[in-house]
């Protein structure tokens, strides 16, 4: 089973932990438009791609001791390195040693015995620009949610700056050879959609022999997807690409208890649930829905059950091969 997964943030890394149990031929294409936190500092200081999301995906796909995982995620608490993670610094060092990201990531993949590979969506210095319904726009991934909340307007669309960013040749090759392509999960406008704004990626996905799945988020994200349902998430992706980048939507239909969702509601997030009307609307545009309980709650964090999704994708591949 050859998988290509597009995304970023926590959602992608959690999914990868489950998927790696079912296949070693896994390519994670990661958004690199982040300009906040420790990644943003390294991006500005060293002129490198922001390493944070790639670090999380490397850890998710790695076969290393728990102590090494703790080391990679360790954040310094004092001095000039305050807030910076060791893993980010390691990626920065490898980048300086080898002179380019592709070589550095391959070496890191070898060191950490990855079950697959981690690829940046582009090697160019890309920023995100959001255009709102009220006509205003904001540049910079870290500032988009706050600006949206302040204006009370919704995101109409986003673009990359520069507008034309080229994908890696390896990404192009992997899309053409994939059995399954997965979009998400992850922040819709700042993790998932940026990947399909890269030059020619929607066309390559549409033309691929692979079956295309979109894993919809379990919760809305304040400042990005307030009041969105599953259908709204899908429409946003189609608006930024084309109708043929999704064959199936994987969506949760299990209601999460009020006690488990309380912290999210306090921050303004709501549960994203599929229902019969949305299924009907999606089927009218020839997108099939796979609905089930895909929720896993650990330490009060609501996450996708990545092993269940991995098994689902494996079963689908087996059935397709039989046919």
Number of helices: 14
Helix fraction, binned, reads: 40-55%
> Radius of gyration over alpha carbons?
19 Å
Strand order of the largest sheet: 3-2-1-7-8-9-10
**Strand segment tally:** 12
Structural class: alpha/beta
Summarize the model shown:
By secondary structure, this protein is an alpha/beta fold. Helices cover 42% and strands 18% of the residues. The chain is built from 14 helices and twelve strands.
Plain-language structure description:
The structure is a single chain. The protein has 323 residues and is of the alpha/beta class. Helices cover 42% and strands 18% of the residues. The protein has a 7-stranded parallel sheet, sandwiched between helices. It has a 3-stranded antiparallel sheet with strand order 5-4-6, covered by helices on one side. It has a two-stranded antiparallel sheet with strand order 11-12. α1 packs across α14 (306-322). The longest helix is centred in the C-terminal third of the chain and has 17 residues, at 306-322. The protein is globular and about 55 Å long. The relative contact order is 0.14.
List keywords for this structure.
alpha/beta, seven-stranded parallel sheet, 42% helix, globular
Task: Write the SSE topology.
Elements: E1 3-7, H1 9-19, E2 26-30, H2 37-46, H3 52-61, H4 66-73, H5 86-98, H6 101-111, E3 117-120, E4 127-132, E5 137-139, H7 144-151, E6 155-161, H8 169-177, E7 180-183, H9 188-192, H10 201-207, E8 211-215, H11 230-239, E9 248-252, H12 258-266, H13 276-284, E10 288-292, E11 295-298, E12 301-304, H14 306-322
Parallel strand pairs: 1-2, 1-7, 2-3, 7-8, 8-9, 9-10
Antiparallel strand pairs: 4-5, 4-6, 11-12
Helix pairs in contact: 1-3, 1-14, 5-6
């Amino acid at each position: 089973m050859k998988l290509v997964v597009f995304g970023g943030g926590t959602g992608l890394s959690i999914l990868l932990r489950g998927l790696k149990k079912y296949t070693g031929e896994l390519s994670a294409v990661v958004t690199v438009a982040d300009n906040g936190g420790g990644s943003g500092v390294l991006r500005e200081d060293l002129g490198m791609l922001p390493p944070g999301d790639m670090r999380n995906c490397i850890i998710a796909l790695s076969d290393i001791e728990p102590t090494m995982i703790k080391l990679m995620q360790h954040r310094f608490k004092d001095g000039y390195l305050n807030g910076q993670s060791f893993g980010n610094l390691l990626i920065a060092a490898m980048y300086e040693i080898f002179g380019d990201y592709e070589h550095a990531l391959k070496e890191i993949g070898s060191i950490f015995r990855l079950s697959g590979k981690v690829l940046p969506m582009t090697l160019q210095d890309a920023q995100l620009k959001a255009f709102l319904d009220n006509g205003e726009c904001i540049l910079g991934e870290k500032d988009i949610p706050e600006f949206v909340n302040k204006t009370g307007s919704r995101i109409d669309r986003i673009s990359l700056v520069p507008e034309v960013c080229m994908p890696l040749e390896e990404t192009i090759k992997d899309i053409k050879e994939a059995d399954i392509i997965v979009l998400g999960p992850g922040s819709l406008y700042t993790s998932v959609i940026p990947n399909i704004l890269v030059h020619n990626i929607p066309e390559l996905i549409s033309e691929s022999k692979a079956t295309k799945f979109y894993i919809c988020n379990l919760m809305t994200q304040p400042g990005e997807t307030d009041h969105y349902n599953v259908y709204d998430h899908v429409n946003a992706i189609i608006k930024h690409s084309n109708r043929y980048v999704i064959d199936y939507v994987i969506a949760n239909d299990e209601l999460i208890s009020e006690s488990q969702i309380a912290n999210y509601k306090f921050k303004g997030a709501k549960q994203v649930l599929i229902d019969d009307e949305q299924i009907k609307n999606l089927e009218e545009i020839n997108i099939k829905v796979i609905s089930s309980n895909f929720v896993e709650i650990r330490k009060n964090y609501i996450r996708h059950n990545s092993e269940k999704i991995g098994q689902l994708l494996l079963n689908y591949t087996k059935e397709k091969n039989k046919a």
